[in-house]
Amino acid sequence: MKIVILDAATLGADIDLSPITSLGETVVYQSTPQSEVAARLADADVAVLNKLKMNEESLKNAHRLRLICVSATGYDNIDTTYCQSRGIALYNVPGYSTDSVAQLTAAMALSLATHLTAYRDHVHSGAYTTGSVANHLSPVYHELSSMTWGVVGGGAIGTRVAEIAEALGCRVLLCRRKQQERFTQVPLAELLERSDIVSLHVPLSAETRGMIGKAEIARMKDGAILINVARGAVTDEAALADAVESGKLGGLGVDVYSTEPFSQDHPFTRLTGRENVCLTPHMAWGSAEARARCVGTMAANIQSYLTGVDTNRIV
CA 115, 121, 124: angle at the middle one, nearest 5? Predict the structure, then answer.
């Protein structure tokens, strides 16, 4: 069995890949241009990848390929219909990054709500040292216990974020498909209208693509904070940038983008350096513990496939 890991660098240079490499002959590429995927999978039995697109163009010459392992929970980069037509199994890794993503979401909310960057910069710039007052209280910030936190998406990550928000004293609103008893569940429009903080935790699908655009932002409270740790394309990124620049949004935290990395002409480049904007490089999922769980689960997925077990199998 030949295993090809196409973009190992996305898992981090420190990660131990031996749970996978011990299962068979393994070729490890740190990165693979999309144009070279087909050639590198030509004699592979198993493909391990993160963000690369798997479709007819990239898989048409992979005649031996039996299994694709995605090092992620989401698999919107995989043409599942084509894989099914070819008899190629697809396994994902659910749940491995719940604590990691929830932690970054909470960190963004706390930092943006407290204007932590502005206060840090006041000291780091020397302004505090040269001033004559023992404290500095601008910009004004408010306690999270006075706020309503709207969580969009009630899967494992959304539920954990709702639990953290509740522990911080927030009133929690939840928008999700399935009914649940713990948190107040409301439609998206109502959640946007009532929330001081809104965080997004939904997969990218035809239904969720562009779900937060100009009209939805207009429904939000003036000065509200929006955090997107889901997928970049669930928002209209230009509309988000406009809302920050106009002051409609009081804070913006984003870890995911419609194009990664985003280019110089992306609307978010206009926001870099702003105290009320926190843009991070798609790292929310990537704590050391989460990445180790991810690799371990992918190795278990390969073994599951070989033994005919469908745990974590998508197609």
Answer: 145
**Going from the N-terminus, what domains does the chain have, and what CATH number goes with each?**
2-96+288-306 (3.40.50.720), 98-279 (3.40.50.720)
pLDDT, block means (10 residues), the chain with 315 residues: 97 97 98 97 98 96 97 94 98 97 98 98 97 96 98 96 98 96 97 98 95 98 98 98 98 97 97 97 97 98 96 96
Helix (H, G, I), strand (E, B) or coil at 183: coil
At 36, the amino acid letter reads E
Torsion of CA 66, 69, 70, 73, to 10 degrees: 110
Q: Taking the complete model, does pTM exceed 0.85, yes or no? A: yes
Residue type at 45? Answer: D
Active site residues per annotation: 231, 260, 282
Q: In the β-sheet with 224-228, what is the strand arrangement from edge to edge?
A: 184-185, 171-175, 148-152, 197-200, 224-228, 249-254, 277-279
The length of the chain, given as a count of residues: 315
Cβ atoms of residues 47 and 6 within 8 Å: yes
197, 110, 151, 173: CA torsion to nearest 10: -70
Task: Please state the φ and ψ torsions of residue 205, each to the nearest 5 degrees.
Answer: -150, 175
